[in-house]
Task: inverse folding
């Protein structure tokens, strides 16, 4: 059967692969070549679309090697960060997306230079318009933002401020591409990657590994991605209660909270339209819960052509005012689990409850066992995500064997869909996420004790998409 006729999910993975340019390493060797081979052998066969961060092309054949191997496995469509030269005093952004399904359009932005070692990398975001069915597309954005090299204790931290500026640019880039590529109201949008925002709250030792609370920077990130700029209330993490039909129509679904949570306040992860827009004008109601919602702005009206764009070199051209579009992004991992899972600096838990750093090979000594959540899949569904147009919510109960931080790898899953696009059937499709997970990609059973124990210092994040006729 073709991809359009069977019920197999479309499988997407995002991972920071930690393959830095030659000469940059944590220990005597980062096992870059061996880890790339492991990805080729054990990871690529399980997915339809894979996005990488920190897979640098600068002064190394490793990215080209992975691309050739991916193409041999049926990933015939590839797009990555533009390569740089020493003349530019920078290296490439390290982003790459490989797909079994056709990539019909691409674009990219480069953020202004970051701080510290990030100053050297041309960090930004890449966009791919992927034909998941004939005439029906997935709009996929992959990004890697400014890193912090010590714990962020305040939103005034220099690296946190840079990230918020990058998220503002990313929000504008998403809106611009939705306009330029004429995104249909039923087509989903995904932003994924290493966003370098630690969503977890670190005020207890040992940490509660299933803590449902959200850090202030996480709330600021979600507000910025949804609204273009975070308001004071959203940044402070104050609870937001939608108070009107239009707000409910445009805001994201509330994340599922577990029955038992910490005794400390759980900071709300929901942001309504009223908290997004820097004015008091009425908000134009959306026809569905998933459409982009423009504000009634006298400067820009409802015309998305007034969105500020970004030049390829990272400079902004503000010839037109911003239309404050609301992008009702949902954090699929948090929604699935009800807490922020560790994706960097994981630990093992002994019988007496003591935590021990899991990785001692790739992770920097100061970050071992730091229990951070840095990697995300953010989702805006289409109008046909559910039969009645309501926002779908992932059910953790549907996957009792869910992959978690303690699940060994290689990650076994149903076979990927075929690369061909279905040429028959109705032109309208319903796409919904049915499972989102953290994918550790541990390698303990495949390598020697003195070798690497996981494929990267980061875990991957993945989502399975169900695609059916509407």
Result:
């Amino acid at each position: 059967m073709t991809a359009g006729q069977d019920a197999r999910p479309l499988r997407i993975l995002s991972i920071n692969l930690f393959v830095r340019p030659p000469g940059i390493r944590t220990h005597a060797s980062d096992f870059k070549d061996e880890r790339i081979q492991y990805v080729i052998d054990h990871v690529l066969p399980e997915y339809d679309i894979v996005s990488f961060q920190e897979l640098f092309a600068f002064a190394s054949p490793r990215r080209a090697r992975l691309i050739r191997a991916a193409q041999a496995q049926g990933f015939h469509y590839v797009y990555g960060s533009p390569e740089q030269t020493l003349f530019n005093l920078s290296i490439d952004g390290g982003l790459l997306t490989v797909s079994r399904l056709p990539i019909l359009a691409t674009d990219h932005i480069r953020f202004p230079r970051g701080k510290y070692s990030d100053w050297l990398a041309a960090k930004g975001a890449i966009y791919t318009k992927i034909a998941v069915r004939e005439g029906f597309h997935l709009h996929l954005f992959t990004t890697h933002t400014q890193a912090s090299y010590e714990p962020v204790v305040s939103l005034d931290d220099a690296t946190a401020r840079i990230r918020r500026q990058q998220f503002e640019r990313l929000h504008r880039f998403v809106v611009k591409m939705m306009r330029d590529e004429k995104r249909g109201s039923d087509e989903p949008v995904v932003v994924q990657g290493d966003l370098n925002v630690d969503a977890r709250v670190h005020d207890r030792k040992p940490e509660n590994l299933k803590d449902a609370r959200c850090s202030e920077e996480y709330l600021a990130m979600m507000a910025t991605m949804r609204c273009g700029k975070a308001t004071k209330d959203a940044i402070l993490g104050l609870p937001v209660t939608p108070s009107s039909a239009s707000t409910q129509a445009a805001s994201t679904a509330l994340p599922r909270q577990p029955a038992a949570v910490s005794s400390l306040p759980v900071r709300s992860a929901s942001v309504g339209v009223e908290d997004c827009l820097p004015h008091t004008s009425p908000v134009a109601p959306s026809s569905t819960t998933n459409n982009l919602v423009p504000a009634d702005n006298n400067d820009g009206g409802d015309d998305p052509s007034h969105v500020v764009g970004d030049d390829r070199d990272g400079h902004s051209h503000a010839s037109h005012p911003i239309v404050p579009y609301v992008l009702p992004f949902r954090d699929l991992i948090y929604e699935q689990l009800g807490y922020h899972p560790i994706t960097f600096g994981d630990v093992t838990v002994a019988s007496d409850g003591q935590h021990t750093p899991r990785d001692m090979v790739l992770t920097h000594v100061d970050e071992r066992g730091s229990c951070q959540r840095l990697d995300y899949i953010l989702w805006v569904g289409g109008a046909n995500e559910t039969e009645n147009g309501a926002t779908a919510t992932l059910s953790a109960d549907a996957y009792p064997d869910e992959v978690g931080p303690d699940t060994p790898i290689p990650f076994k899953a149903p076979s990927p869909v075929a690369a061909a696009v279905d040429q028959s059937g109705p032109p309208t499709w319903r796409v919904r996420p049915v499972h989102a997970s953290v994918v550790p990609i541990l390698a303990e059973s495949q390598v020697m004790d003195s070798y690497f124990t996981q494929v990267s210092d980061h875990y991957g994040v993945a989502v399975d998409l169900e695609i059916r006729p509407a």
Notes: The chain has one domain: 10-295+327-345+373-469. The chain has a mean pLDDT of 75. The longest helix spans residues 158-180. The domain at 10-295+327-345+373-469 is CATH 3.60.10.10 (Deoxyribonuclease I; Chain A).
